[in-house]
# Entry
Amino acid sequence: MKIVILGGYGTFGGRLVELLLGEPRLDIVVAGRSIEAARAFCSRRTGAARLIPMALGRLSAAHQLGEVKPDLVVDASGPFQAYGEDPYSLVRAALAAGADYIDLADGAAFVSGISALDELARGSGHFALSGMSSFPVLTAAVVRRLAAGRDDVDTIIAGIAPSPYAGVGRNVIKAIASYAGKPVAVLEEGLWRPRHGFIDSRRLTVNVPGEVPLPPIRFALTDVPDLKVLPGEWPALRTMWMGAGPTPALLHRLLWLAARLVQWRLLPSLVPLAPVMDWVVNRVRWGEHRGGMMVEVTSSSGDARSWHLLAEGDGGPLIPSMAAEAIILRCLDGSRPASGARPGHGDLELADYEPLLARHGIRTGVRASPAGQPLYEKIMGEAFGRLAPPLRHLHAFKSTQTMRGKAEVSRGTSLLSRLAARLFGFPQAGRDIDVEVEISAKDGVETWTRNFAGRKFHSIQRPGRGWQDGLIVEGFGPLAFGMAVVERGSRLQLVLRNWTLFGMPLPRWAMPVSRASEHGDRERFNFDVEIGLPVFGRMVHYRGWLMPSAPP
# Structure
């Protein structure tokens, strides 16, 4: 199969080439306006697919595609919002050359408008699918999964939060600049209302069950195809909102301020500033190399379910190109999409994505929040059911329970660590120490009383709120620690993420070092907790086992 990828050495086209390099059944024409850039790109990559550099412009494609005779043309260039008076010339050129067509368009009007070529595409026996990217293809697939079996979808909220190190293409920056601060039609409470791009915002948390969540992020309204194409799929839909969460937060604030200048008509558009925006976004970077996505679907009865995606490292930037990858792999396997021109949000299901995501270590999960869940079950979501039975028993109670067992305790040797351990009331060192743990729960808040051979210390655990959303917060007097609850192979780990004094955030560089895990062994609940201080080392390390004081 021969495919032409226009913009093949660019950000998203290049990532699509990377995804397809291992496929020996492909000849990939890496095309763009610069033959030198195409050749340089191809020379740096090797794989089972054959790469062919080519100089090809969108406006000159009609003649050149007739000579190349591709099976499929992929437009990964853009910005699609600026394709002028004849935005679908490349689509017609591909169909005239006897090729199918897909694009990675993010422009709402461009994607919805391709249906005007449906009769032409059907007559040629080929397909032309627009918007084959995370918005709207992955979003729509997720909504279908979450809304399966029900026709009362009332609200859809979704957002993408790329890693600060993901790398954003210049054409994406130009697209954002074209609508930032300008009115965007948004469905709210059954009415279409004007809101402003990259100004209207919501705070959301990407929180895959059993993983360390992303910090709550401010997402800003984006003018994406979903806003136009998804309401037609769910007639009962009354509210729909789609956003992006750029990081670091400082850059997001600067973009918000610039968009305000457009809203206030102090600037006609941010498009002239796109080169500066591109330079800043792709060079001013800090924070964790993690990104994610979330989609929440709420029914008319108020029942809400959400799907979350977490990508760590370099896997996340590949996701926008995976819809095109999936379509190409299906074509290779003899399962072509139906002929016709249309937005592509109905041509892939979440099942098509899942093996592609897993191949790059990208994790996903679904959350539902029925009332009355115990604290850990609420925080962990579906991952709670994967824990070993003794762990589920300990953390699933709703009133009061007592566990008894044995422990081994060791203490630090530095003066500061000994003083801190005394302040918290941590137990003295020893072996084969009798342990009793009493846990009482009320309104989703748990009080833990640990008794090591008569020496007690207390803490209160509650669900995090606001900037600690998605975490369990454990308080020792005025100090509180926000912890992610992670599941690994039926074990539970508590990962310290932040800490506060009287509710005020404290610097992470001074945060205590903590390693805490739980695992099950037949009927026993096993624990291993080590707490220390930066530079000064261990405060306390206690490990042991517990069993219910009465049969469960």
